């Protein structure tokens, strides 16, 4: 039996009343999840109620060594619809 194996994360997106209207699924290979942990690169597809991807968040791999702290800040690229870059979320 294999233990400590992390799978792709899945999320429900709900209204303030708790009604799910979208869901999100991470896409990362098993080796990356195991070796890079919480700092891993990933794609996160946000899907509507019909299963269509409406937003994609892309997090590239960044150096986390102390010497890279100013030039390799964490970021998420935002695509809406997928393939159309509309902006990014960047660590300050």
Supply the key terms:
mainly beta, globular, 92 residues, 1 helix, 6 strands, 40% strand, phospholipid scramblase activity, 6-stranded antiparallel sheet
Give a written overview of the molecule.
The protein is mainly β and 92 residues long. The chain has one domain. Helices cover 8% and strands 40% of the residues. The chain has one helix and six strands, in the order E-E-H-E-E-E-E. A six-stranded antiparallel sheet has the order 1-2-3-4-5-6, with no helix packed on it. Strand 1 and strand 2 form a beta hairpin. It is globular. Its cofactor is Ca(2+). Belongs to the phospholipid scramblase family. This is Phospholipid scramblase. InterPro entries: Scramblase. It holds the Pfam family Scramblase.
Tell me the series of helices and strands, N- to C-terminal: EEHEEEE
Structural class: mainly beta
Beta-strand percent range: 35-45%
Q: What's the total number of strands?
A: 6
Low-confidence stretches: none
Number of domains: 1
User: Percent helix among the residues?
Assistant: under 10%
Q: How many H/I helical runs?
A: 1
What does the average pLDDT come to?
88
Ends: how far apart?
42 Å
Note the overall shape: globular
Instruction: Please outline the major beta sheet.
Output: 6 strands, antiparallel
Outline of the structure:
By secondary structure, the chain is mainly beta. It is built from 1 helix and 6 strands, in the order ββαββββ. The chain has one domain (10-90).
What is this structure's SSE topology?
Layout: E1 10-14, E2 20-27, H1 30-36, E3 42-47, E4 53-59, E5 75-79, E6 85-90
Antiparallel strand pairs: 1-2, 2-3, 3-4, 4-5, 5-6
């Amino acid at each position: 039996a294999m233990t400590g194996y992390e799978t792709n994360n899945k999320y429900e997106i709900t209204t303030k009343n708790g009604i799910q209207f979208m869901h999100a699924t991470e896409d990362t290979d098993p080796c990356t999840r195991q070796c890079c942990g919480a700092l891993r690169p990933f794609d996160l597809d946000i899907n509507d109620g019909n299963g269509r991807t409406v937003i994609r968040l892309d997090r590239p791999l960044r150096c986390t060594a102390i010497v890279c702290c100013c030039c390799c800040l964490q970021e998420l690229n935002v695509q809406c619809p997928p393939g159309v870059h509309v902006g990014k979320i960047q660590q300050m």
